[in-house]
Hints:
Number of domains: 1
Distance between the termini: 45 Å
Structural class: alpha+beta
Number of strands: 8
Bound molecules: zinc ion
Amino acid sequence: MIGWRTHDPERDAALYVSREMGSAERRRFEAHLLRCDDCWREVSLGRDGRGMVEASREIAPPGLRDDIRASISVAPVPRRLPRRLALVAAVVSVLAFSIFGAAQVRSRNQPPPIAAALTAARTETLAARGPSELPAPNLSSEGLQLVIGERVDLAGLTSDAFMYRNTTGEAVLLFTSAAPFPVAHAATPLAAGVNGWTAQSDGMTLVCGDRPMNYLVIARDPSLVGLVQHGLITEPTPS
Length: 239
Ligand SMILES: [Zn+2]
């Protein structure tokens, strides 16, 4: 095992910024970034210095260019997260837009808000409109740690979006909205007596329900979707 004591900030930051790290390694590096000024500086330089913003703007469809600008100019700093963590997420947001085109094509048979949510889940990206309106549900009892919470626009559907990771770094996205989510293509109803549906798309599992609020959960691993559902139902009401 190579410890961080012997690490190479320039190399590690380059791997991180170019998204060549596996999810578990990325998770460790994000935790390390919060404490290591050298690595943080390298990641910041990588973000600012390589023209990725301009590249993303050229690749992204017109509507998304505004999202990219918003995610850069309105620095998304959620209330209860360390500033660095929020900035890490912003860096990743910008990068992930470069692969939006491919993700969009695969989700084209979905209603636009579902396609947008799938893209966010596939790329682990949130294009922030600002901090989330509601506080993030605490899912630590399910072994899920909050990564970031944002206000987002899912193709016209305003929503809060929360990203969690389990201990091995797998991500799950939770969207909540005052308005109901559209039904995904080829969805099947949840159990009798429960309003909602589940669907598979783009290698991801989706579950949507309306208790205790309109929610949509998306993850590659179906068991993570179940954990979020369970956590939402059993979460203590904030006092
Ligand atoms: Zn470091």
